[in-house]
Amino acid sequence: MQLREELLKLLEEDREFRYAVAGLLGFREILERLDRHQAELEKLWSELKKLREDMNKGFERRDEELARLRRDMFEGFKRHDEEFEKIWREIERLREDMNKGFARHDEELAKLREDFNRHAAESNRRFESLEAELKKLREDMNRGFERRDEELRKLREDMYRGFKRHDEELAKLREDMKRGFERHDEELERLREDFNRMLSIIGRIEGRLTRVERTLEKLTLDIEEEAREVVRHRLREMGVDAKLERLELPGLELDIYGASGDLCILGEATVRLGKRGVEELARKVEALSRMRPDLLRPRTIVLAYTSLATREAVEEAERRGIWILKATGDVTKPPELQQ
C-alpha cells in the first residue's frame, strides 16, 4: 500500500515521472497489439516517418500533420494507441541514444555488448512488471467513452509538449554527435599512428624470426651431423662399421639410418628429447617395417641422440629398448651385440 501511495503521489506531483509512466504504459500495450495488427503497424510507421520529415520542414507542416494525426486517432482507438506508442518509443530511443551513445562508443566492444545485454534484460523485467498495470488501464479505458476522450485530450497536450522536448533533445543530440565525431576522428588519427608503429614493430619482429628460423635450421643440421659422427664412433667401439646417413621416404624421414650385414641402425637426433619424441621414433620404426621391410635386417638398433633427455623420455626408452646417447656418453644402456 505504501508503494502504491508513493507512486500515486509521484504521478500527481512529478510531471516528468508522469510522462515517463505514460510512455512506458503505452509502449507495452501497443507492443502487444503490434503482434495482432502487423499490417496496420507498417502503415502507421510509414505515416510516422512522413510526420517526422514534415516536422523538420517547419511548424506549419507539422501542425497540418498533427491535425491529420488527430483525425486518424479518432478513426479507431487501436490506431491511436499504436501511433502513441511509436512516438514515445522514438522519443525514448533518442533520449537513450543521447545519454548512452558516445559514452558506450568510447568503451571497449566487450563492455558494449555486456551493457546491451543488461539493458535488454532490464527492459524485459520492466515490461513484465507493467503487465498488470496495462490490464487495469485497458479495463478503465473501456468503462466509458467520455473518460477516454478526456485522456485523448490530455494526450494531445502531452504530445505537443513532447514534440517540443523532442526538438530540443534532437538539437542537443546533434551537438553531442558533432563533438563525438570530432573526438572519434582524433581517436582514429591516434589509432592510425599506433597502427603504423605496430607495423614497424611487426616488421622488425619478422626479421628477427627469419634469423631465428635460419639459426634453428642450421642447428638442426649441425646436431644431425654430430649425431651420425658420435653414433658411428660408438658403433665402431662395439665392433660395427656401418655407413650412416639420412633416410627420406614419402611420408617418413629418419635422421640416422645405416646397415651392416644382418644389422641395421635406425635413429633420430634432437636437441631435447621428451616422451613424445620416443613414441614418435617407435612409430617411425613401425611405419618403416610396413613401407620398406627390405631396408630392415634381422637385428635392429633403435637409438636417439640428444643433448638433453627428460626423465619421462628415459623411462619410455628403457621400456621400449631404445638406446639414448649423447656426446658425453650413454643415457640408457646400449644394446649388447654378439661379436
Topology:
Layout: H1 2-13, H2 15-36, H3 38-57, H4 59-75, H5 77-106, H6 109-129, H7 131-142, H8 145-237, E1 245-249, E2 252-260, E3 263-273, H9 275-291, E4 299-309, H10 311-320, E5 323-326, E6 329-330
Parallel strand pairs: 3-4, 4-5
Antiparallel strand pairs: 1-2, 2-3, 5-6
Helix pairs in contact: 1-2, 2-5, 2-7, 3-4, 3-5, 4-5, 5-8, 9-10
Helix run count: 10
The domain tally reads: 2
Mean pLDDT across all residues, rounded?
Answer: 81
Helical residues, percent:
over 70%
Order of helices and strands: HHHHHHHHEEEHEHEE
Describe the largest sheet: 6 strands, mixed
User: How would the global form be characterised?
Assistant: rod-shaped
As a percent range, the share of strand residues is 5-15%
Judged by helices, strands and strand pairing, the structural class is alpha/beta
Give the terminus-to-terminus CA distance. 106 Å
Cα radius of gyration in angstroms: 41 Å
- Spatial strand order of the main sheet: 1-2-3-4-5-6
Poorly predicted sequence stretches spanning 5 or more consecutive residues: 209-220
How many E-type strands?
6
